[in-house]
Amino acid sequence: MASASISKLTALPARVASRLQWEYREWRTPSRASFLQEELDHAILDAVAWTPCERVLDVGCGTGVYSRKLVEKQLNVTGLDLSAELLARAAATGLPLLQASGEQLPVADDSFDTIFCHKTAYLFAQPATALVEFRRVLRSGGRVLLSTSRTRSPYALAQAAAIRLSRNRDWGFNNRLGPGAWIALARTAGFDVRTVYSCNLVAPIVFRVCDRWIVPNEWMRRFNRALRRGTGWPMAGTRPRLLAQDFVLELVRR
Ligand SMILES: C[S@@+](CC[C@H](N)C(=O)[O-])C[C@H]1O[C@@H](n2cnc3c(N)ncnc32)[C@H](O)[C@@H]1O
User: Fold this and answer.
1) Measured in angstroms, how far is the CA atom of residue 62 from the centroid of ligand 1?
2) Residues 62 and 136 in one domain
3) In whole angstroms, what is the distance from residue 234 CA to residue 87 CA?
4) 0.90 surpassed by pTM
5) pLDDT tens-digit series, residues 203-239
6) Neighbouring C-beta atoms of residue 93, cutoff 10 Å
7) Residue ranges making up the domain that contains 25
8) Closest Cα partner for 41 from 73, 81, 10?
């Protein structure tokens, strides 16, 4: 694993480097459990089918939070991230780690069964290139699990406004693709959609202010459960649900 710090990665465009600095500050502290995270965790860890010994590349692994959870499922995990600081923390997992961009993978063709890309896809400046790379390193019939969010929901717009008001210029996206746009790009890149996991139905009226949820977690947890029961909408489907905020796309290499 290379050990250069982000600040020394002068080859990166300033916008990407500044975004990475923010990522490091935000992600070095353990994230707070929230009802939003719980639904996503359920989708990526429990609802998705995992086969023991699957070779998984965790793209944007950060400190290895999810790499660890995947190892508990007896999977062969390799972590990959742009940030040397975060990878240094992920080293405690003892897993193979690569410092690279998801848009340019230093990995041979056909070498993984699954690409796991959680909460990182919005950081790709060239999302189409990332998908082509994902396809290249996957075996035939391999899959991508890609988490994405709606960008024009009331939740996303309120969050964007809160960020503007707080003048936190570091927080941002390198692309603004929602689930529909990712699906269209993935089809062009040579993937079929197997399952769409729609998470966090109408979570959206609340957002984080000064690191606090303005509606208690437990209320939102109950609200989400009641809404899912009321609408009869299971989490797994073939298309993004209208009222959901977050999605996990299971894309299969053609
Ligand atoms: C929001 S964090 C998510 C970390 C981890 N997947 C998780 O859910 O705990 C996004 C991660 O993507 C990494 N990242 C940003 N741009 C990247 C790129 N182009 N290729 C690979 N990793 C990238 C950041 O360094 C950071 O670790």
Assistant:
1) 5
2) yes
3) 36
4) no
5) 545 444 444 455 566 677 787 788 888 888 889 999 9
6) 18
7) 1-31
8) 73
